[in-house]
Amino acid sequence: MPRYQATLLIELKEGILDPQGRAVEGVLRDLGHPVESVRVGKVLEVVFQEENLLKAEEKAKVLGQTLANPVMETWTLEALKELP
Amino acid sequence: MPRYQATLLIELKEGILDPQGRAVEGVLRDLGHPVESVRVGKVLEVVFQEENLLKAEEKAKVLGQTLANPVMETWTLEALKELP
């Protein structure tokens, strides 16, 4: 079966306080690179086997729904590619 | 000045042990969604002002170099867009 790699982004919803992002903002300001805001999320690179690209996309969506907390987070399937 | 949003991915280099990814693998297996591997990284959504897209790209690269640990991590500028 072909192998696929899905890149899933899991980010905090708008309005959810992000202390880690605030900390990064402070570090960047102290280093002389002031920015307006930073939000920190997770990126997951998941490798799995599936019959074809269509089924791989379905599986990647199931993974996103499974791994994100629907109350506080949103997920995006950023990329899906077949591995050689 | 226009505002830009940069999406930076910061991921562990190949060969660096990723216990968080291993834990996610285990959770997915227990939930009936077995996968071959999971690598967990960070995604940073950074908003800043800059004169134009070219300078914004330069700034985003500086941010990537600043925020990633060159010994253990790689960074990618996944997206850069002007905000309305």
Automatic annotation (TrEMBL), chains A, B:
GO BP annotations, alphabetical order: 'de novo' IMP biosynthetic process
Spans through the membrane: none
Reaction(s) catalysed (UniProt annotation): N(2)-formyl-N(1)-(5-phospho-beta-D-ribosyl)glycinamide + L-glutamine + ATP + H2O = 2-formamido-N(1)-(5-O-phospho-beta-D-ribosyl)acetamidine + L-glutamate + ADP + phosphate + H(+)
One Pfam entry name: PurS
Protein's pathway: Purine metabolism; IMP biosynthesis via de novo pathway; 5-amino-1-(5-phospho-D-ribosyl)imidazole from N(2)-formyl-N(1)-(5-phospho-D-ribosyl)glycinamide: step 1/2
Keywords associated with the record: ATP-binding, Cytoplasm, Ligase, Nucleotide-binding, Purine biosynthesis
One GO MF term attached to the UniProt entry: phosphoribosylformylglycinamidine synthase activity
Compartments in which it is found: Cytoplasm
NCBIfam families, sorted: phosphoribosylformylglycinamidine synthase subunit PurS
Record PANTHER family: PHOSPHORIBOSYLFORMYLGLYCINAMIDINE SYNTHASE SUBUNIT PURS
Function as written in the Swiss-Prot or TrEMBL entry: Part of the phosphoribosylformylglycinamidine synthase complex involved in the purines biosynthetic pathway. Catalyzes the ATP-dependent conversion of formylglycinamide ribonucleotide (FGAR) and glutamine to yield formylglycinamidine ribonucleotide (FGAM) and glutamate. The FGAM synthase complex is composed of three subunits. PurQ produces an ammonia molecule by converting glutamine to glutamate. PurL transfers the ammonia molecule to FGAR to form FGAM in an ATP-dependent manner.
Quaternary assembly: Part of the FGAM synthase complex composed of 1 PurL, 1 PurQ and 2 PurS subunits.
Protein name (Swiss-Prot/TrEMBL): Phosphoribosylformylglycinamidine synthase subunit PurS
Organism expressing this protein natively: Thermus scotoductus
